[in-house]
Design brief:
This protein is α+β, with helices and mostly antiparallel strands. The chain folds into two domains: 1-39, no CATH class; 40-119, SUI1-like domain (Translation Initiation Factor Eif1, 2-Layer Sandwich). 33% of the residues lie in helices and 23% in strands. It contains three helices and seven strands. The chain has a five-stranded mixed beta sheet, with helices on one face. It has a two-stranded antiparallel ribbon with strand order 1-2. The chain is elongated. It starts with 5 loop residues before the first strand and ends with a strand.
């Protein structure tokens, strides 16, 4: 099976959809699907996880319907208020240690609907 990757009248073609690269919408569709998957049901969930971390626990905040820059800004503000470390990974915010109760109070003060999930 051969696919055309270049056309003299249209230029380079997208390998996924076959449209010219100037008209390709694959990246936009993937970005909108990722935002929709992050959105969830409007409830922010805070869980605790130790798996794959050599017994060290982290608190994971998921379900925030924010873009990457707003997510990083929120993470930075929460880390400063709690004086802890953390990171933004795959649309979730990870905080060092078991900080679920403190995170719940801070996020509820910002107007989020928060639930504690998991153990």
């Amino acid at each position: 099976m051969s696919r055309i990757v270049y056309s003299t009248d249209q230029g380079r073609l997208c390998p996924d959809c076959g449209h010219p690269q100037q008209q390709c919408q694959c990246a936009e569709l993937a970005a909108s699907a990722q935002r929709a998957a992050r959105g969830g049901d409007g409830i922010v969930r805070i869980s605790r996880e130790t798996k794959g971390r050599k017994g060290k626990g982290v608190s994971i905040v998921s379900g925030l319907n924010l873009d990457d820059s707003a997510l990083k800004t929120l993470a930075k503000d929460l880390k400063q208020k709690l004086s802890i470390g953390g990171a933004v990974k795959d649309g979730q915010i990870e905080f060092q240690g078991d900080q679920r109760q403190a995170l719940k109070k801070l996020l509820e003060a910002r107007g989020y609907n928060v639930k504690l999930a998991g153990g």
